[in-house]
Amino acid sequence: MNNNLRLIVMENIKDLGSKVDLHLQKMLGVEESLIIPIDEVRFNNGEGKIVLKESIRTRDVFILTDPMNHSITYKMYNYYNHKSPDDHFVDVIRTLCAIRKQANSTSLVMPFLYASRQHKREGRESLDCAISLQEYIHQGVKNIITFDVHDSNVQNAIPSSSFDNFYPTNILLEKFVTTEDVENENLLAVSPDNGALKRTRFYANMLGCELGGHFEKHRDLYKVVDGKNPILEHEYIGKPVEGKDIIIVDDMIASGESMLDVARELKKRGAARIYMFSSYAMFTKGVSVFEKAYEEGLFTKVFVTNLSYIDKEALDKPWLEIADCSEYLAKIIYTFHIGGSVSPILNARSKVLEEFAKN
Predict the structure, then answer these.
(1) By CB count within 10 A, which of 32, 109, 154, 342 is most buried?
(2) Which residue numbers in the chain have pLDDT < 70?
């Protein structure tokens, strides 16, 4: 093999990593896997270590990891523990320590950025995202590659380092327009809150449809439930939605309760079909919440990517559509490897979407 690109695929992202590997083999014209085998060791007391099974000297190494994969378990004091995002973060640091800055270059591919929701500080609290980014750079990471980060301003924590935030918008919307019978003239894009307004406007531009409006979240500032102030009500500000097909856009679905509340409010106002879009679907309170809402007719489909782990219970649901981003991710890695410009792959409207927008 005459190229020096190598992948380190953590166990939390094996399925996507294997697909990326196959795409890169085709792009590079090779027939051997680019994945460096590693051992992710766990001792009985819960401590761990990472062992590289192959030399990485002179290699351009890309570490792929998914800190949101809660399905990985290990035995600790004779019981099974699920790996948390914190566990996955430490495994990345262990991997960087095993590399010991001996690779030609080391890039970290973390589609869902660890601690990205702890991106700002209010009062006496930690600033986890900034600290983790600084630690990656300290351990020798040259490039950080992520997708649809919760707040891109987190890159200010590492102002002199490479931080690239990509969006899977094309892939999600291509899946939408090729699987659903919709017309852009009867389609409205609605933002679930102020924070997602810019993202929703971008989706509307890509589809050639109208931006319908947004919801204002009124929270109870005197209570904290599951680490956040509970929502008292959603107030809709925008155009009439009666008889319209609606897309609701956000970066992630955590419990999904907020997005479902928005769908419920839109249905009260006479909306027709409701489609939800999110780069990540965590379903932190289980898939049954969405299953029940689907049976009630609150929404038609949920469109997500395979950039992060999706609960197996959700995979065969008729309301879930998963857009495969493996080729897109492989193109990004290949472009970084050859030192090319990423501008051509940064969300220019695809031909499929151009045709849809003309209709």
Answers:
(1) 109
(2) 1-2, 219-222, 225-232, 347
